[in-house]
Amino acid sequence: MGITNRNHMKKIKWVVYLLTVLPLASMAQTPSTTSETAEVTPSSGGVFGGSKNFRTFSIGINGGVLIPSVATGGSNDFSKWQVNYGYGAYLKWQLLHFLALRGDFVAGKLKADNSRELGNGQAPNSPYASFETSLKWSGSLNAVFNLATINWLHKQSAATLYVSVGGGLAGYNPKVTTPGGVTTEYKPSGVIKEFFVPVGAGLKFKLSEGVNLDLGYTMHYLDGDNLDGYNKAPSKDKYAYGYAGLEFSLGSRSKPQLQWHNAPAVMYDQLEASRNQLKLELDAEKENNAKLAASVAKLQADSDGDGVSDLFDKCPNTPAGDKVDGSGCPLPKPDTVKPEVKVIITEDDRRLVREAIANLEFATGKADIKPSSFASLDRVADLIKRKNLSLKLAGHTDNVGKDASNMILSKNRAESVKAYLVGKGVNPSRIEATGYGETQPIATNKTAAGRQQNRRVEFTIY
Questions:
Q1: Are 114 and 256 contained in the same domain?
Q2: What's the total number of domains in the chain?
Q3: Same domain, 253 and 367
Q4: Separation of alpha carbons 205 and 211, rounded Å
Q5: Are residues 250 and 389 in the same domain?
Q6: Does residue 29 have a pLDDT over 60?
Q7: How confident is the model at residue 120 (pLDDT cuts 50, 70, 90)?
Q8: Is the distance from CB of 75 to CB of 121 less than 8 angstroms?
Q9: Is the domain of 17 the same as that of 110?
Q10: What percent of the chain clears pLDDT 70, i.e. is strictly above it?
Q11: CA 85 – CA 67 distance, rounded (Å)
Q12: Which of 153, 176, 363, 437 could form a disulfide with 406 if both were Cys (CB 3.0 to 4.6 A apart)?
């Protein structure tokens, strides 16, 4: 029978070992948190930010009663147990919202006697009338499982139920008293040390962000029959500790406790915040689109139907059917057109055009005309309108860049000059704009000076 009990206790030890060591192994495999985690508020620690956003360490102190019996029943060596004081403390490390490791310390007094008669009218067949054991210390490592952390009904939990199991070592000193009143120490030479398995349950209430009320009950199953000073093998002694205490969470006050973390509620809040932010962004985009649509409608408006936008129409309310120039002003009607007179282009006219070519500058790699070129272009526009001349614009580039890109750039620059002159009242039908890219250089492209000469727009009046 003794060998069977020893084998049974070995199995219990292995179960305790697995329950305490496996949570540590799972913790070691948990991915580390990233540095991009958002700032935490006391009401929420995020869903996927990792445990560093929470308070995970706590200490507890408690007091209560010790009895040499447990709720699961079983035989006892004395017929009537007595209630005595007990006290304890613990340090807890919350690994996950539902799992923690807790190191417990418990001490106190245990008493019982044979004053209660059993069913047959007899007390247990014991040579002792009573015992008193001083539980000097007991230390255990426990895995604590929260059973009601995730709450689908309420965002904030006020209470949670937990269970615990582990293994530890107790040191105690029993004294026994005979029916004649003689009291002796069971082990005069010192303290008895025995392995035990604690199994407990409790209810915890959240009083504030840093303080919890802890109500619990733990049964301690000893690997021996020495607790009451009466070794009646093969039975094993056991005792229970019922307590009430306070638990204090350690760490920054800005962080919530991990054990109260309700992941579904926090995830809902985060999704709701994201939805609201997305709605704000969509509303802003709708407003921008409305402004853009209004601008396009304004740009397309042509009240007099002459083909020139109201924004650029210098002669609004043009009669229907009248032909207009680029600024929206009517062209001379056929019956009022004067007989065409041969126009003589003077040397001064050519000099004015050469000056416009020499002063013409564009933004680097673009078709935007620099303001320094406007004055000479204005004189060319006045000349064309005054003498009713025609103008050919030929855009050219150097050989830097792709051929296709240079061809587009030369065409755009010629068109840019045409648009400027039309904006000054020149009849667009009098201007021809062509781009030749890098196909017609007038100097070598091997030098900076030569490339500068090749980047040009030529004016030809006739």
A1: yes
A2: 2
A3: no
A4: 9
A5: no
A6: no
A7: low
A8: no
A9: yes
A10: 82
A11: 9
A12: 437
Task: Establish if 281 belongs to a structural domain.
Answer: no
Kindly tell me if the per-residue pLDDT of 17 is higher than 50: no
Closest CA to 38 of 30, 29, 47: 47
List pLDDT tens digits, range 354-377: 898 888 888 888 889 999 999 999
Segment 391-418, tens digit of pLDDT: 999 989 988 889 888 899 989 999 999 9
pLDDT band at 311 (very low <50, low <70, confident <90, very high): confident
427 pLDDT tier (thresholds 50, 70, 90): very high
Distance CA 382, CA 78 (A): 125
Cβ atoms of 382 and 404 closer than 8 Å: no
Assess if residue 168 is contained within a domain. yes
Q: Report the range of poorest mean pLDDT among 17-26, 353-362, 428-437.
A: 17-26
| CA 237/CA 115 separation, integer angstroms | 19
- Same domain for 121 and 7: yes
Task: Check residue 302 and give its pLDDT.
Answer: 80
The parent domain of residue 344 ranges over: 340-461
Quick one: tokens of 285?
A: 């985009």
Whether 312 is covered by a domain: the verdict is no
Q: What is the CATH number of the domain that holds 446?
A: 3.30.1330.60
Domain shared by 214 and 123, yes or no: yes
Of 17, 313, 314, 5, the closest CA to residue 143 belongs to 17
Crossing angle of the two packed helices 347-359 and 374-387, in degrees rounded to 10:
150
The CATH number of the domain where 220 resides is what?
Answer: 2.40.160.20
Domain boundary residue, one of 236, 261, 286:
261
Q: Do 253 and 379 belong to one domain?
A: no
Q: Which of 309, 310, 307 is nearest to 324 (CA)?
A: 307
Tens of pLDDT, residue by residue over 229-239, are 988 767 789 99
The candidate with the shortest Cα–Cα distance to 393, out of 353, 342, 337, 442, is 353
Contacts of 323 (CB under 8 A, 6+ apart): 330, 331
Nearest to 384 by CA among 433, 418, 333: 418
User: 207-223: per-residue pLDDT in tens?
Assistant: 998 999 999 999 999 99
Do 152 and 239 lie in one domain? The reply is yes
Domain end marker among 224, 239, 261: 261
The tokens for 387 are 């003498």
Q: What is the pLDDT of residue 38?
A: 36
In a domain, 40, yes or no: no
- Measure Cα distances from 189 to 176, 185, 193, 370 in Å: 15, 9, 12, 106
Average confidence (pLDDT) over 3-23:
41
Provide the 3-class DSSP secondary structure of residue 10. helix
How much is the CA Rg of the chain, to the nearest whole Å? 49
